[in-house]
Fold each of these.
Amino acid sequence: MISLTHVTKLYGSVIGVNDVTVDLGAGAYGLLGPNGAGKTTFLGLVTGQLRPSIGRVRVFGERPFFNARVLRRIGYCPASDLTERSATPREWVRYLVQLSGFTPAASLKRADSTLEQVGLGEAARRPLSTLSKGMRQRAKLAGAIAHDPDLLVLDEPFDGLDPVARHELVSLVRTWARSRSLLVASHLLHEVESLQAGLAVILGGRLVASGTVHEIRDLIDTLPSEVRVVSTAPRRLAELACGCPEAEAVRFVGNDTFIVDTRVPRLLAERIGEAAIGEGILVRELVPGDRSLEGIFGRLVQLHRGATP
Amino acid sequence: MTGPRPSPDRAAGESSPLPALAAIVAVARFQIDRLLTPPRLALAAIGVIFPTAVLLAAAKARDASLDHDLGAILLYALVPEAVCMLGLLVTISPAVADELERGTWVHVAVRPGGRRALLLGTWLAAVLWTGAVALLGLLLALLTGVISNGWSLLGPFTILVCLSCIGRAALFALPAVIVPKRSLVASVGVALVVEYLAGLIPAVINQLTVSLRLHTLLVRFMDWQRTLAPELQLLIDDRPPSAQVAAVLLLAVVYLAIAVAILEWRQFPPSEES
């Protein structure tokens, strides 16, 4: 469905995406990466807004840029908020459907049914300026799906939403994607996980990993990490830590601080904590290594560049 | 996750028989709705009243109604030139910049033919809006009776207003797509350099301007060609009015085709879409 072959996109001297090669078949996918990683550029290439500087982009087997056949089959919901404030959701969605080649009457009908589907039936005639961000996001989503595309592309669709609105939107997208293809860009792993989508991880414009959520999690688990411990009896506690099968190496970085290398930092931290309680040792600090997405991204990049796990 | 189902055929009658035209009309309608705001309506009201106010002031200064020829010259400077130019500057020049600023560009750009529809639809809205303001201004000026035998100007000036709007809206579409974020300044530059400077140069370059065609039509409509000073004869074209009308329409088509081609090929990095 989506195929990028050695694609690089340059904005002058700035790299948007760098030598990306990926093939995504039909189904749901999450494009994961921190802000500025190149996700929006990736989506811009897929949705025909941008041309690659180098390489080849194909969507449904064809070049998407300036290609009405491909664009007709894509629905795109950008990350930016909808600042078209005076129009109502009904007018906005009808307008977009008309631009996709539908008659005014059919556009209005589709706008009404899609707004109903995304839960904006009652607010359909209120100006967008009076709607909450969550409602505007849903109006954007309605605009992206009302012309019945085969591929829905969403850029940070849950950004800035409160938990309730986020949950509702996740359910909507998940329901919609049961029978269509979906590509969602996000910087939050759990959002993509909740969509039960495959993953492609992008960082610094490079695709650093791809696979199912489980494969990515397994990969993450193989990455080295550490647990930092500050204690009043560091040598005794380090001795106990060495006894844990999860510990790979121990080193001291001060009189009261030591670091244990491990691949399962949370589990090891729990074991060290339990050991400290058992021995009555005071622990001032017990910090499992950086498993934040940024930390994981950083290590995936190292792995991508040839570092040994 | 199941694979995607094949795209269903659209129900009978859902697809527009002329999708490109339907999209252009949809954009034009949407843009006109955007123009129906109090500030824009106030601006339009000023555009309607302004020519009459100036003509009345001129008549008051002369302490008599304006004679036919002087009235025609003033009316030409005020309506097909000033009102049309200013109206088009605020409607067509920000065609792309407005979309980028509102965050709506990307929604339109990912539609089949969306970029073309955006430009042509905005052009159509600009022509209709500015034309309506200018024609109302013309009507109001003639209704005051400040120009002697003024109603004879209605037909010729309606043609001049329409051609001014059609041709110049197309001309201003070029800076709108080439330098969207500086389009207003660029359009003023184009108006001054192309329309007013190049239009007054008696050489091949003035053939590419709308000004030359409008000047020529004014002279023909007013039957001034025999009384025109020899040096001013150089500033008009000697072909018949129908050729001038065709030339403006051809210029509009060429300018719009170039603008559409540029816009279809343009890319806006995500950072510019704010």
Note: Chain B touches chain A through 46 residues (CB under 8 Å).
Amino acid sequence: MAAPEAEVNTHTGKLEFSLDVPFPSAEEAIIALRSLSPDREPRRGGISKQLSVSGNTLYVRWSADEARTLRVSVSSFMDHLSLVLETMEAFGPAVKLHT
Amino acid sequence: MTVVIGFEGSANKIGIGIIRDGEVLSNPRRTYITPPGQGFMPSDTARHHRAVILTVLKEALDQAGLKPADIDCVAYTKGPGMGAPLVTVALVARTVAQLWGKPLLGVNHCVGHIEMGRLITKANNPTVLYVSGGNTQVIAYSERRYRIFGETIDIAVGNCLDRFARVIKISNDPSPGYNIEQMAKKGSQYVELPYTVKGMDVSFSGILSYIEVSSAHKMLSSGQCTAEDLCFSLQETLFSMLVEITERAMAHCGSQEVLIVGGVGCNLRLQEMMDVMCKERGAKLFATDERFCIDNGAMIAQAGWEMFRSGHVTELKDSWITQRSLCLFTTWRTPWVI
């Protein structure tokens, strides 16, 4: 997992943070993406979070007005991510669907 | 045969239940209990749920003697409830639904209580009193919807009981309401408390401030009444208000059945008072015990079973949780009930 420090984007003036999470397979990365995506950040929180998958890596990008909201969002994301990983470990691997 | 697993965790209980065509195969549950004087906060409650949810899930499958492949649908509470605990449970439900290749289904917590109550008691078309820590509503079914006839205009009845318990430092184990009910049995003196019914609605916040800041608290500290007397008086006042609005809804709907659901619904004094009213009207009371009244996974599985059988599923992208109440539209009941 690669996590650079939060830095200020000189064009937008916003704080940015990114996280790259490698999974054993692309399939698992997509399951995590679909489990973690549906719940949106609070509308007036001055924060946005983008999730995407490429290959077997889950990419997360934050952009925030304040360090406090960024910290809360990243910390709660880490809790959510570790729960999804534990669930995969305990109840995986994914069944192969014949579709 | 249709097998549905239900995940519930909208408040301080985390429960996972499995239902196969009306039969409860398993229904394990854990409760987050806070020290006396303290309520449960969203982030602490979510941490509790995260710590135990996978153990509870294993128990649910083991007790039912089922493998993931035997399950047809994964139901979870979409809302209403506390945000952080709801997300915790939804995350696991979404992940296992994908791992097992099963459809996902978001269920309204309130509909879960009603459908479980109907399953267990066999009540056909009851007027429903839904009373818990977060909800107080009188609900009746008409033309494909569960319609709210009356509700609290401020705090829920269970919230009033919980906060009263915090004021006089009653234990939260197993639940504040249960401990108030036991203490109320030893109360002898009735302390008059504000009785606030406004049409079909009720209000409880005034009762709480009356106890917190005014004469009731002084009576207690000066020894004019005991904590047991206050428990007794509080129950009599709150439950009379609930019986009054339930009776009014019954008269409006011409209903001859009452079903009490929600955590406060396992209070035997509430059931007793409601039963007196029902007998006077020639109506029948239906209630369940703490296994099914209090939040549990099987109730979400049961509502999910009805929804799944009538063609519902929730796409992953639409599986966001909501803290607010949802539409009470049904597709599984006949439009009109005589």
Note: The longest helix of chain A spans residues 67-91.
Amino acid sequence: MSKGALLERIEGALANDRLREAVKRATNNFRSGKARAVLEYDDWEAMRERARAVRAHTIAHLDYYLAQLAAKVRENGGYVHFASTGEQAVEIVRKIARHYGVKSVAKSKSMVSEEIHLNDALKEDGIEVYETDLGEYIIQLAGETPSHIIGPALHKTREEIAELFAQLEGRTLSTDTPTLTAVARRQLRNVFLTADMGITGCNFAVAETGSVTLVTNEGNGRMVTALPRIVVTLMGMERIVPRLEDLDLLLTMLTRSATGQRATSYTTIFSGPRRDGEKDGPEAFHLVIVDNQRSTILGTEFEEALHCIRCGACLNICPVYRQIGGHAYGWVYSGPIGAVLTPLYRGVEEWGEVALASSLCGACWEACPVKIPLHDMLIGIRRESAERRRTHPFERWIFRGFGWMMHRPGLYRAAQRAGRWLQRPFVRDGRFRWAPAPLSSWLKTRTLPALPSKGFRDLWQSELTKQREPRLAVKAAFGEQREEGRGA
Amino acid sequence: MTLKGRGPALDEAHFGGESQEEFLSRIRARLQGAGYVADHPSFPAGPLEDEEQASYEQKAERFMKTLVELGGEAYRAPSREEAFRLIRDLLLHRDVKGVLTSGGDWSQCRAILEEAGIAVESWDEVAFSHGEADRELARADRWGAGLLWADYAVAELGSIAVLSSPRQGRSVSLVPPLMIALIAPEALVERRRTVLRHVAALAKERGVPSSLTLITGPSRSADIENDLSIGVHGPGQVIAILVEGS
């Protein structure tokens, strides 16, 4: 992917007013839900810290807990497969489908399956694949990818949805929500009752009991694990908790941060195939544990990205996501966590640029229920990207020059003086009104203050001579400003 | 590795992928490189303050309030018989012609419902098998409601918890458009954590149940322009009855 492609996608998103309106509406809803939810707890910060500790402990002992999980799944009568790459994961699922003679698949939401393009591969084998989460179903019909991790179709209008459903039903439909919901219910009910195989993602696996936890509001996760003969779960290798009771805190953090709900309508914790004498539930269960570049993050400064519980809170709060929506990020994960995961999973060389889609304000870190320092990671990825010379030669030249000058205080002062003089034609009321390229594109969306007549050094010097305790005076003057800046 | 499971055992290696040992040793190497000690971890102890403290009355009030806020209905019945009569009235009011029951003893209820002209099918009797969708769909349509005894109810969330077993089918609380759960006093707990601890203890004793489902209000979706819609896949109506004094 080139930077041009990123910019092109961003410009396209910025020009699409309807998309921006839809993204704003949805993220505002999610955010206000979360804000209300957090108020119900006196100790939300302590809960965040504890959730972080649970995730850190789990990742630090990931090999142990995965081995325990695999043993328990087998004890429960299920099968476990390990895939180091996306290709291996796809191949395993294809072979499972072939083994059981599967003709149709009902899928509940799985981000891993989006990572590895599983649907396309199954379709090549002549298998019909149906997404059953309403949002995923809509974008599948539209041939698009998710634009938000928990609201995959938030960019689609009801008119567009009615159009897609009308084609399906061969009749015109009104655009009210109950009508459209009824169509989806009828169409997908048939899918649930006929599909040979269910494919699910995994919100959390439980090492202690060999269970897979799915949270859904619609109930499709339950349908997919209750009705088809075969169930396959695709699981990113980091999505695991040690004990059943650890789910309590992490489910709270997940649903509270995602939509504000105390709990989703359904929490399904299933453990292998149906037992003797049971009449529903799958006859066979396969768990596919997927690495797909995750292990390369272990032990690096980016390891905490594996703590992510996929709530989407960082998307909803991000000033950049809120303007450009999910598709501009170019891959399945969007928002701040996407800008970190995409380069890590797919290569900084090619994808490092998505880390530029951030203002580094740190709101994502504050919103994250497991306290992932996403803003630090975004800087880290920018640094790696720069080290690999993925930046523009002009930018490198400018910064080399800047660095050279910063080592020479006399020259720096002279440059400042020259700057104050040179800026005059461009400045009015203390800020730049226009400027030649490349500054002109910066000014399109941002304010650039003019160099002040007295700089920090001048102020510092005059304070030093005026005050007996210069440090305190300067702290008083600048401390206040910093507090203001933080609140912005 | 060849395994024993249902039907003829399958060889996992037949499906390709990497061996467990290779996969885990790659992770182990990265973790050791980062200075983590790879041994049996002891998990940090959880907070102690939030064990069950509420009285039955407090739990009952909280459960009912929370479920109603979520769009469900909640009632208290002073006896089983009263609960069954209440079910009959609720079903007649909704014009439900047939129900499916699961978990617990429904014989007395059955008599009351059948007398009112409502057909009752027990999960023990049905042969719910996958594959013939038309037949199953027709059958599912006959079930206007699923009736079950909850294994747990969680006051803090307004959740109804169901453990799968030969007598407790997953479909009963899922396929019909209306679900009615009866809750015995001992099944009502304050916190979700208590349910998870109970099930973990149960799992150690005699193996984990094939599924534990927490149902928290009706099925909902906001995938169409963020507009709330009810009953997209699961039941659109959820009714809980606290059966007391039995």
Note: Chain B touches chain A through 94 residues (CB under 8 Å).
